[in-house]
Amino acid sequence: MIRRAIISVFEKEGIADFARQLDDMGVEILSTGGTAQLLSDAGIRVRGISDVTGFPECLGGRVKTLHPKIHGGILGRRDDPGHQKEMKDLGIAPIDLVVINLYPFRKTVLTPGVRLETCIENIDIGGPAMLRSASKNFAHVTVLTDPADYAQVLAEIRTEGDTRYETRLRLAKKAFELTSEYDSLIASYLWQQVPAEPPPERLTLAFQKVQDLRYGENPHQKAVFYRNAIPVRGGISEARQVNGKDLSYNNIADADAAISIVKEFEAPVMVAIKHANPCGVALGSSVRDAWRRCYEADPVSIYGGVIATNREIDAETAIDMSAVFLEVVVAPSYTQEALNILTQKKNLRLLSLPHIAERIPPADREYKRVIGGLLIQDHDTT
What we know:
Elements: E1 4-9, H1 15-24, E2 28-31, H2 33-41, E3 47-48, H3 49-53, H4 68-75, H5 81-90, E4 97-101, H6 105-109, H7 116-121, H8 126-136, E5 142-144, H9 150-160, H10 165-192, E6 207-213, E7 223-228, E8 240-243, H11 249-262, E9 269-274, E10 277-283, H12 287-297, E11 305-309, H13 315-322, E12 326-331, H14 336-342, E13 349-352, E14 365-370, E15 373-378
Parallel strand pairs: 1-2, 1-4, 2-3, 4-5, 11-12, 12-13
Antiparallel strand pairs: 6-7, 8-13, 9-10, 9-11, 14-15
Helix pairs in contact: 4-8, 8-10, 12-13, 13-14
């Protein structure tokens, strides 16, 4: 049964309504700092963490929930008589629901000009600890990290008094994914602060899902597209689609290859890729001149190809391009006249990538999976 919840969130969207519904169902709510104040101001009954632990929040808020009466309440097994007796003897009440989201470390490190000290202060300690505790004890405790799951949890509590085992297992998996990504981001960021540091002994990578793809390289293969949790400017994952069907696995792979070649040139360049192979790379005095030369390099193979350039597509170039069947065009921008022309082809995928010409940063590397392993090397930018 859900009788007691702890709520401590940095991003507070939707939390007051969620907590109000818990309060209406008779769930006791524990909370910290700003979250407790927000809930109290909203007229929701809330009990401060310090009232539970008998110890004040201290060290500028660094220590709030790191206390046996919190973690014991989360980790204690309800089906273990020894745990139950010990909790009773120590005055530890069970905590059945843990609602946490974390300090915005990713958002902080992406802030232009941010100082190392600021990033360090945005490393959450108590939040991940509670998430891991709740996830470990998912057989008895529900853990929530995403507002998208609030409605389902409320519905199950309202109808059954508790959440279903399958729901708790799914949410625990989700919480461990979050804490794993969070730690990976911190490790990656700190590694970048020491440029001369050799490759880490333990490699952790953090990626965020962009979209499910219809299929992979072949129709029988499932595929998903992820982007770096800390984005790389000028990469395919940062492109904005302005027209056409959803990108396929092969579209993304070929567009990435075309973008990588574009980055090697400063003059107007046009690159055509077909089935992972360049079928035209040309420099020109203008984007239209580069297009014509690229097309003339192999006017047969370019059919159904992926095109990338480092210059804005203008109307004249768009007219020339529209005479050829293309799958994808990637450019820093398009004039309105060019868009009017190219978007007449409803299936043509147009991608806008303003930083397409930027060099690949040294911290980004090439990864190649082998069976049971991973190869890593610097990008070839010379």
